[in-house]
Structure formats: C-alpha cells, structure tokens
Amino acid sequence: MESTFELLKAFTEAPGPSGRENVVRDAIAARWTPLADEIRVDAMGSLIALQRGSGPQPRPAVMAAAHLDEIGLIVTGIEGDFLRAHALGGIDRRVLLGLDVLVHGQRVLPGIIGSRPPHVLTPEEREKIIAWEEVYVDTGLPRDELAALVVVGDHITFDRELVALKNDRVAGKALDNRASVVAVTLALQALRERNHAWDFYAVATVQEEVGLKGAITSAYGLAPEIAIVLDVTFAPQHDDEGPGTFALGKGPTIAAGPNFHPQVVERLQAAAKAEEIPNQFEAVPGSSGTDAWGIQVAREGIPTGLIEIPLRYMHQPVETGALPDIERAGRLLASFIARLEADFRPRWEDEL
User: Fold this and answer.
1) Is the pTM higher than 0.70?
2) Of these residues, 208, 209, 319, 327, which one is catalytic?
3) Is 208 a catalytic residue?
4) Measured between alpha carbons, how far is 97 from 160 in angstroms, rounded to an integer?
5) Helical H runs in 80-140?
6) DSSP strand pairing (47-51 vs 199-205)
7) In Å, how far are 169, 255, 256, 262, 345 from 283, measured between CA atoms?
8) Domain boundaries, given as residue ranges, for the chain
9) Domain 72-158: CATH class, spelled out
10) What residues are paired with 280 via a beta bridge?
11) What do you get for the CA distance between the two ends of the chain, in Å?
12) Which CATH class is domain 4-70+173-351?
C-alpha cells in the first residue's frame, strides 16, 4: 500500500488542467479500481467509484466529491519562436516569471516563462505585475517545428515535483485539490475494511476551477441523499494570519453556513469527536467557492457538508500542506459514512 506522501506525489505530479484531466484521472482510477465494486467515467469526465453498502434495499447513497483538475495555462497563439498563453482557472500572474512548464501538444514539450531582463525595464515597468499580453512560453524550438507540434487551445501545466519539507509538510503544485483526492482514496481504503449501511460514491470531479461543472453534473446523475465535498482552505502564512485562516497540522476544518445542512454538519462534528480526530471549525457566511456550492442545488437540492484541508500559498506552484491533515480528512470522511444508519435521512423539519 502506498504511503500518503506517495499517493500525493503520484496525483500532484500528473498533469490535469481543467478540461484535459485524463492523465491524472487514469492515475486515480488505477488506485480506486481495487477498492470499488464499480468504477466509471461519466459524460463530463468525472471519475465515479461505487462501494456498495450493507443496508437493506433500496439503499440510500452518500457522495464524496473532490475535484481533480488543476489551474494552468492555455495556448492562445504562436509568435515567432514563442507561445502566447492565458489563464486556465485562477492563475496568479505574480509567480509566473521564471517558471518551468510543460506544453501538452502533439508530445509534451518542456518550456519556461521568461521576461525581459530588469536592466532594460523602465522603473515603472519593474513595479508592475506582468500583463497577460506579455506572457510568453519558450520551448527552445523554432517557429516551424513549434507550429508542427503545438496548436492554439493546447494546455500548459506547471512542471513541479512534490517536495517533502520538515514537520510532515509538503509543497508542490495541485495540492488544490489532489490533497482531497488522496483523502477520498484513504476513505475508500478504510471503508473496504469497515461496515457501512449506505452506498458510497467517491467522485473525482472535473472542471471545478472553471465553474464547478463536474460536481453539478455528477450530483445530478447520482442524486445522492447526502454529499460531502472535500477541498482546501487557507492556512496562516507570514503575511496573512488573520481571521479565515486555519492552522497547519491541527486537522481539517468542518464548515458551517447556508451552503451546508445543519444535520450533516452536526454528524461530521460527532464523527470527529467519537473517533478523536483533530479538526477545526470554519464559518462560511455565503458561497463556499467549492463543489459544495453547485451540489447543494442539484436536482431538487442535496443536503451537503464540507471538509477542508488547510493550505498555504494556494494557486501557486508551491502550495504547502501537512500530511496529517490529509490523513485526518480521510478518517473523518470514512467515520461519517460508517456512522450513517440505514434509516437516517437529513430533514429540515427536524431543525424547527
């Protein structure tokens, strides 16, 4: 069995920008297939694994969703020996210069994003964040060879290995949200050895970074009685330690607010308490900005909860998290599912 670090390394280093998630989806499917009774890819591209429960038919279903896509770039043109590129998802332009990238054309091409040297910039230009019209990718190839291998619309991803830091911390690209995919994988492993009355659908959703699309469509297709979304949240860092940040290494957060059903929140908290899983509480007064926002209103509405893993430097190539938080998120998800009674259904009338 692979360690948490090994799983995270395999998932984060695989490319999977929004709309072109096939490589990372295959890596996840290889780990989920032995743990599932059924596995398939839906029409949108989300990966769906089913573990059947032990309760009487017709069994209710609980869905756990974690998006597998990552932010990246898309080729918008070829100018001379260089590729023009633009954002695919919430790219932070401040960190682009000097990055190693991979261009996914007819074959994968290594490239870099450079800039004019500071010696030739005006004082005003040195103070500005690079504009998108000034972002160029250099593969080293001349135009004719480049045009034979790359077309407008091809995707570009960061070329970054996962790095083990001190204190069980790791840094790399795409921890948002492959860290949560690892947590769902750990829950699948745990529930293979643990009785659960409900059917469990593990879903690695696509295109979250460009509009929650895989979550909306998979939730509509599965129509579960409950959904738990796993994503990342903000951890304190040197220049941001205010409200809305949650400590690394203190466990995942359980979110509360209008995006989440109170009984689901209470049962997540009860599961954490029963199994002594460290966790933190996160108030979300409006949209969570996660797959939970789309799943909650799928079909006639789905009672939804949210588990989040604290992360530093979100949407940068050095996203930093703590391995114990990922493992605790997986344990919390498994505990929540195992504790669902066959006859339980979340009801708003019970909250009156």
Assistant:
1) yes
2) 208
3) yes
4) 14
5) 123-126
6) antiparallel
7) 25, 6, 5, 12, 24
8) 4-70+173-351, 72-158
9) mainly beta
10) 253
11) 46
12) alpha beta
